Amino acid sequence: MATMLLFSIAREAAGLATFECAGSTIEEVLEAARRDLGSRFRQVSATCQVWLDGEIVRDLSLPLEEDSEIALIPPVAGG
User: Fold this and answer.
1) What is the pLDDT along the chain (79 residues), one digit of tens a residue?
2) Cα–Cα distance between 36 and 65 in angstroms, integer?
3) Which of 11, 23, 38, 47 qualifies as a FRET site for 74, CA 20 to 30 Å off?
4) What residue segments make up the domains of the chain, in order of their start?
5) Cα–Cα distance between 12 and 5 in angstroms, integer?
């Protein structure tokens, strides 16, 4: 089962810090999270960078291992 770590506004929108879900690809887990965690999370997640096991990814069709860790990193602003 993959674990999705949620940070900042993604965590606030979901109401939790982690989401666990079975899925064979990043896309499957992300779609399950968007379905289960509601419309606010769906909106926020669309702006997030996706990381898999500590590496940024752009290909959401990458296969997952049983213990894969996905992280959603929202955009940040500084000043």
Assistant:
1) 899 999 999 999 999 999 999 999 999 999 999 999 999 999 999 999 999 999 999 999 999 998 999 999 999 866 5
2) 22
3) 23
4) 2-73
5) 12
